[in-house]
């Protein structure tokens, strides 16, 4: 019986308890994980990027999964990186980090920090793989004035894994934070991202794709806290649920007082392919500022009959047409993965998962 | 354009705020104990099953926690609330027999006039008891029953029907305030429309709470037979006091196969009221439930009419508007369970927050596994009129079937400068342009109401724009 970490992915404003979306819990790895064996980064750091020394540039940011998760990572971390991009530099290559869950490392708990100094730009790609074990990760992002951070997290774990991926981010004036999360594997996957858009004209784009098959459960909590003027957030989620998989998505645009002329847009698209799936969605807009533009749109359902019919008239079988539509949902997000190897691995993984599903829907 | 803010007037409450001298013939002590609940039961001459039901509900009330979500209820202390207060008159069937002070209150609210002009029947409750109930003879001849709940409970013909439906759809275990309702309910209306009877003009019940520090706990039970059709209107108001008042009513609606029920509410409680109300409809095959809901008053509201679409092809439409001004926290919305295949729901809400008021839209759409072929569409739009107010949107969708079409959209924002500019370029003053936009914002709800009530709603909102805005 695992110890549970509770109050995870808590909705910023609670609602009816019986709906089961207010928060969740995850089963923690029992005991303290052994030190990580192996290198997570095979290559030299690109020019302009170095290991961050010394204290964090600001307060610990709130994360999507919440305080209890962050505390658990602090107490159990066995790997991770601290990176900084020097002021005014634009790293030409991404920093590639590969965390592998395997016999040597049955539990991987990575604790990462990325600081982009003024007017610098950095791309960090994290790839999680392995068949069986536990992965939990926490990543803090600090984008200082005019800086840009691209964070890409790709999770391709096997069905024997429990996984979580938590992000907390802070953006100063004119800074931009782009996060891509591809949650495609594991038996149970939890993901969170909370970004504080404190600086004037700071910006967040959050693109997430998920894929549920077999009995996978996925649980998400994304939030953008707008405190700065003319800030902008775009949260986009797309995914597919097959077999007996289930997903809970919480997405919050939070306009706090002072966020004048802020814009927050959130969209979600869920394709359902089995009568045994479960899709829960809680898209919140919280607002205490008048001069804002907040929007949310969500659609959930089967692939449209008209669309399927059209594709089938072009010669595709029904299954191939459905596969094509799932790939099409993922493509705009996978195209943002800067590493061709990882990008291909994602599409191969999805195709592989879909290939066994000849009788979808 | 200047930078001065628009002035949107608060709702004019003059006619609602006139207080009558409290002239109760009987009232219980403040607070909630088995002794008080027994006292209410004796005073109301309950049958034994009802007395036992009240005491059981009180046990449940004491056991259940307060909600862990929603607006603060810190200002509500049940030890200060008088749960039963009987006006100094029995129920009458003629307005001329109702005591002058009570009659004058309802005259000011326009109830007798509306009855003469456009209603098939009226029930009027004053504090804990119904003081007037009447239904037109031609409607009565159709077999329609419209009476106060107490009479229905004791009626030899309809009593068993009441017993088999009373708090079965909304059980006292549902939440704390509905358990409270089960313990101390008093007043309200019972409606039965026989199969295939269509009531061509609406029935209306009006609830007036006059006494300070009191609670009102009316129960409304409507049962429509197969193919029946009814429009029921509910209105409520109270004068403002400096102490908390509580309204915890309960509405249970049974819509049989192919029946159609429209339930319209204009809620205008005073700003010291905690309005913790529960409404639920059970809709059978091919039945249609339409909710039209306007929430304007109260200090705190928690109101989410729920529809259970039990039969295939059952439908639900919810149209609501909420207007929160200074000192108000109005948490409103709707719930729907698509419990059968090919059911349809549509939720369309608007909210306006001003002068420090707080609106929350809260909803749930649930589609369980067996419900294939369902469609649901949710749209909520919020307007912020200043930067000291608050507006939150908290919808949840829980879908456990793949063959569904569920859409949701939400928008929040202010009046667009472009729209103002456009209207001004067509010759309108800025004030008129703002007024037109805000009135247009509320229009989808107004057009769902009978014309007299749309006028009342517009009077309630009184979205009169003054001065330059920017």
List keywords for this structure.
heterodimer, A: 361 residues, mainly beta, eight-stranded parallel β-sheet, 4 helices, 45% strand, globular, B: 470 residues, alpha/beta, ten-stranded mixed β-sheet, 12 helices, 36% strand, disordered N terminus, disordered C terminus
In brief:
Chain A is mainly beta. Chain A has helices spanning 67-76, 305-313, 318-334, 340-355, and strands at residues 4-8, 24-27, 49-51, 82-85, 95-100, 107-116, 121-129, 132-143, 148-155, 160-171, 176-183, 188-197, 203-212, 217-226, 232-241, 246-255, 262-272, 278-287, 292-301.
N-to-C SSE string of chain A, H for helix and E for strand: EEEHEEEEEEEEEEEEEEEEHHH
- How far the N terminus sits from the C terminus of chain A, by CA atoms, comes to 36 Å
Number of domains of chain B: 1
User: Major β-sheet of chain B, in short?
Assistant: 13 strands, mixed
Shape of chain A: globular
Characterise this structure.
- The complex is a heterodimer of chains A (361) and B (470).
- With 361 residues, chain A is mostly beta strands.
- Chain A has one domain (4-355).
- Chain A has 4 helices and 19 strands.
- In chain A, 53% of the residues are buried.
- Chain B has one domain (17-417).
- In chain B, 24% of the residues lie in helices and 36% in strands.
- In chain B, strands 6, 7, 9, 10, 12, 13, 15, 16, 18, 19, 21, 23 and 25 form a 13-stranded mixed beta sheet that branches. A 10-stranded mixed beta sheet of chain B has the order 5-4-8-11-14-17-20-22-24-26.
- In chain B, helix 3 packs antiparallel against helix 9.
- Chains A and B meet through strand 18 and strand 19 of A and strand 23, strand 25 and strand 26 of B.
């Amino acid at each position: 019986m695992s110890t549970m970490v509770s109050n995870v992915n808590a909705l910023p404003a609670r609602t009816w308890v019986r709906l089961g979306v207010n928060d969740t819990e995850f089963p923690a790895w029992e005991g303290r994980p052994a030190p990580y064996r192996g290198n997570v980064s095979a290559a030299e750091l690109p020019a302009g990027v170095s290991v961050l020394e010394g204290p964090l540039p600001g307060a610990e940011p709130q994360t999507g999964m919440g305080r209890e998760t962050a505390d658990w990572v602090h107490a159990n971390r066995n790997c991770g990186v601290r990176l900084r991009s020097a002021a005014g530099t634009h790293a030409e290559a991404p920093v590639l980090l590969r965390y592998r869950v395997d016999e040597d490392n049955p539990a991987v708990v990575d604790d990462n920090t990325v600081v982009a100094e003024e007017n610098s730009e950095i791309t960090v790609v994290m790839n999680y793989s392995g068949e069986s074990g536990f992965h939990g990760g926490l990543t803090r992002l600090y984008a200082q004035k005019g800086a840009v951070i691209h964070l890409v997290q790709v999770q391709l774990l096997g069905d024997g894994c429990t996984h979580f991926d938590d992000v907390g981010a802070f953006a100063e004036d004119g800074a931009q934070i782009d996060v891509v999360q591809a949650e495609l594997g594991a038996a149970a996957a939890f993901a969170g991202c909370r970004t504080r858009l404190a600086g004037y004209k700071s910006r967040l784009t959050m693109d997430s794709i998920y894929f549920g098959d077999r009995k996978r459960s996925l649980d998400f909590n994304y939030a953008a806290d707008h405190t700065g003027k003319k800030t902008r957030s775009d949260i986009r989620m797309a995914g597919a649920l097959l077999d007996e998989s289930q997903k809970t998505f919480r997405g919050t645009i939070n306009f706090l007082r002072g966020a004048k002329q802020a814009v927050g847009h959130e969209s979600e698209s869920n394709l359902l392919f089995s009568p045994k799936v479960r899709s829960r969605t809680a898209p919140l807009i919280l607002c205490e500022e008048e001069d804002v533009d907040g929007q949310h749109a969500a659609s959930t359902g089967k692939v449209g009959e008209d669309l399927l019919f059209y594709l089938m008239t072009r010669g595709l079988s029904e299954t191939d047409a459905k596969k094509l539509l799932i790939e099409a949902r993922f493509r705009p997000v996978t195209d943002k993965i800067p590493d061709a190897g990882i990008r291909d691995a994602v599409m191969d993984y999805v195709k592989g998962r879909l290939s066994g599903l000849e009788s979808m829907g | 354009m200047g930078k001065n803010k628009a002035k949107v007037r608060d709702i004019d409450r003059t006619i609602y705020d006139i207080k009558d001298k409290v002239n109760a013939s009987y009232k219980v002590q403040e607070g909630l104990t088995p002794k008080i609940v027994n006292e209410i039961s004796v005073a109301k001459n309950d049958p034994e099953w009802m007395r036992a039901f009240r005491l059981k509900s009180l046990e449940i009330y004491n056991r259940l926690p307060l909600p862990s979500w929603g607006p603060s209820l810190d200002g509500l202390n049940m030890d200060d609330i008088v749960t039963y207060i009987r006006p100094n008159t029995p129920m009458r069937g003629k307005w001329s027999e109702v005591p002058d002070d009570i009659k004058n209150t309802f005259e000011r609210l326009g109830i007798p006039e509306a009855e003469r002009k456009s209603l098939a029947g009226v029930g009027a409750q004053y504090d804990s008891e119904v003081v007037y109930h009447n239904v037109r003879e031609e409607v009565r001849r159709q077999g329609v029953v419209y009476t106060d709940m107490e009479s229905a409970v004791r009626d030899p013909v309809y009593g068993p029907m009441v017993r088999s439906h009373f708090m079965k759809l909304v059980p006292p275990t549902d939440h704390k305030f509905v358990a409270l309702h089960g313990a101390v309910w008093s007043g309200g209306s019972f409606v039965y429309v026989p199969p295939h009877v269509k009531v061509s003009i609406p029935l209306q019940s009006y609830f007036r709470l006059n006494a300070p520090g009191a609670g009102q706990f009316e129960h409304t039970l409507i049962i429509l037979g197969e193919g029946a059709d009814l429009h029921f209107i509910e209105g409520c108001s109270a004068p403002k006091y400096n102490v908390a008042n509580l309204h915890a009513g309960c509405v249970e609606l049974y819509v049989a196969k192919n029946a159609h029920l429209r339930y319209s509410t204009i809620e205008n409680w005073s700003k010291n009221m905690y309005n913790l109300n529960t409404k639920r409809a059970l809709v059978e095959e091919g039945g249609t439930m339409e909710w039209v809901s306007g929430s304007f008053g109260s200090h705190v509201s928690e109101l989410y009419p729920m529809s259970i679409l039990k039969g295939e092809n059952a439908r639900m439409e919810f149209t609501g508007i909420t207007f929160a001004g200074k000192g108000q926290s109005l948490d409103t919305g709707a719930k729907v369970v698509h419990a059968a295949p090919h059911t349809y729901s549509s939720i369309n809400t608007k909210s306006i927050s001003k002068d420090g008021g707080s609106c929350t839209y809260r909803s749930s759409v649930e589609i369980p596994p067996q419900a294939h072929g369902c469609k649901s569409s949710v749209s909520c739009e919020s307007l912020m009129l200043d930067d000291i107010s608050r507006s939150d949107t908290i919808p949840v969708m829980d879908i456990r079937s793949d063959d569904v079409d569920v859409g949701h959209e939400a928008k929040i924002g202010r009046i667009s400068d472009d729209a103002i500019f456009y209207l001004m370029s067509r010759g309108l003053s800025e004030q008129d342009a703002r007024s037109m936009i805000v009135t247009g914002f509320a229009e989808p709800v107004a057009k769902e109401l009978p014309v007299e009530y749309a006028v009342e709603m517009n009077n309630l909102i009184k979205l009169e724009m003054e001065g330059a805005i920017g």
